[in-house]
Specification:
Low-confidence stretches: none
Shape: globular
CATH class of the largest domain: Alpha Beta
CATH architecture of the largest domain: Alpha-Beta Barrel
Structural class: alpha/beta
Length: 449
């Protein structure tokens, strides 16, 4: 570990020139990619000195911008979807819960190989906690991976499920709202230029009319959108997503979507008449986050209502100029389902637990057992009386990423070589199923960068 910022600057001599910590210039791109970026990203995550961490993260973001692989908003592409100028593929959005730098590198390699333009790195509010990755760290890891892989083009980093906690909101609406506002500010400062506001947890189905059921949802979404528009950097229109159906609940309907949008547009106009609205809408189609584990630890099969995606996507584009509907909780679905999403006009699909499961399957057995023992000891209060041990482990192992973060980063060259091959195979399979290949020219055309 580097001891201080002076050592950090010294380690970059002849590779990166730092002008008063206001601007960084690449002196030797080959050396930067061969080793210096590895050092920078490791220091940005694990150095105990906060100044070394923050300066390393700043350097990574500035260097990425200089080298043509900086953070960007996908808004321009989603506007093109809304105008009917682009169609036929679904944008993959992947939640990266662990070994973030190497995981992202694998995605960039697959994207370069297949000329994939729109693909999103995302992390949810809840994931930031149990994976121990705040926005500032997360964006640095993703952009460092882009630098390492000599990727050229916009990098889409997204705040997924910036979610209101219904119980906390009931107890103290102002406090819960302020927590989401604070997270938005933190994320934008870290160059998250795509943010999904999830106030669907506040939908009250006991109300008589659909409008009243959705009121808290659309009013809070409008309030957060207005805040985002105030904070977004000059020249950047952050892509904002909304949600009408909490994943795991009842399936969404066109009536719910229209009620949400009508209330949202009015509420947003009352706050800021010229503000850009949301670019997509997340819906419930029958899936659940992480899937439903059976007693033996396997995942139950689910039935996806593709007509929900088709109907709401059509309304979103034709009536509101949006990209369309978003599918959550998809990575554990059967493989044969994935090529159906582009066919019904799904704008974006979120993939998380399937990659988590893949990593756990690949972890060395001794290490995996160490994580499981930690969970049995420290998460015991989360085990319900009717749960088998297999179900408990499946439900809680996402919480192993934070406590074992550094150990995962240091599993060794041989393990990473094997894991990277498996990750790339899975990325390529899913991305091609979603028709995302040969789309880089579309992003180049529509995304301001």
């Amino acid at each position: 570990m580097l001891k201080n910022v002076e050592e950090l600057k010294k380690s970059l001599q002849g590779i990166v020139e730092v002008d008063g910590w206001q601007k960084a210039k690449v002196a030797n791109a080959e050396k930067l990619r061969s080793s210096a970026i590895d050092t920078l990203v490791y220091e940005s995550v694990f150095n105990p000195d906060q100044e070394v961490k923050s300066k390393s993260r700043w350097l990574i973001r500035d260097l990425a911008k200089t080298l043509g692989c900086g953070s960007a908003s996908i808004q321009g592409l989603y506007d093109a979807f809304g105008r009917g100028e682009v169609s036929g593929f679904t944008v993959p959005a992947v939640n990266v819960r662990g070994i973030t730098y190497d995981f992202a590198r694998a995605m960039f390699r697959v994207a370069k190989k297949n000329s994939i333009g729109p693909f999103v790195f995302e992390i949810a509010k809840s994931e930031m906690g149990y994976t121990d990755q705040r926005p500032d760290e997360y964006s640095a890891c993703i952009l460092a991976a882009a630098v390492k892989e000599n990727y050229s083009g916009p990098v889409f980093i997204q705040g997924d499920h910036f979610q209101f906690n219904a119980k906390k909101f009931t107890q103290d609406p102002a406090k819960e709202t302020e927590s989401i506002r604070a997270l938005i500010k933190e994320a934008i400062a870290a160059q998250f230029y795509n943010i999904d506001i999830d106030s669907s947890t506040l939908v009250d189905l006991s109300k008589k009319t659909t409008e009243e059921q959705q009121r808290n949802n659309f009013e809070l979404a409008a309030e957060m959108t207005a805040l985002i528009r105030e904070l977004e950097p000059a020249g950047v229109t952050i892509s904002v997503g909304g949600e009408i159906g909490e994943v795991g609940g009842k399936n969404s309907t066109p009536d719910e979507f229209r009620a949400y949008m009508q209330g949202y547009v009015k509420s947003l106009a009352a706050r800021k008449a010229s503000a850009k609205t949301i670019s997509k809408i997340s819906v419930q189609t029958g899936s659940s986050h992480g899937g439903v584990p059976l007693p033996d630890g396997s995942v139950a099969q689910v039935k996806i209502d593709f007509e929900v995606l088709r109907d709401i996507s059509n309304i979103a584009r034709k009536e509101y100029g949006m990209a369309g509907a978003v599918q959550h909780g998809a990575s554990t679905l059967p493989e044969e389902m994935f090529d159906k999403f582009p066919g019904v006009g799904t704008a974006e699909i979120h993939l998380a637990t399937g990659f988590q499961n893949l990593l756990y399957d690949l972890f060395p057995k001794e290490f995996r057992n160490e994580v499981y023992e930690y969970l049995r000891k420290n998460m015991a209060d989360e085990k319900k009386p009717d749960m088998t041990d297999e179900q408990f482990i499946y439900k809680t192992r996402k919480k192993g990423f934070g406590p074992f973060k550094e150990q995962m980063w240091n599993l060794g060259k041989d393990w990473f070589q094997m894991a990277n091959a498996e990750l790339e195979k899975r990325f390529e399979f899913l991305f091609l199923k979603l028709n995302a290949q040969n789309t880089k020219s579309v992003v180049d055309k529509y995304v301001k960068f």
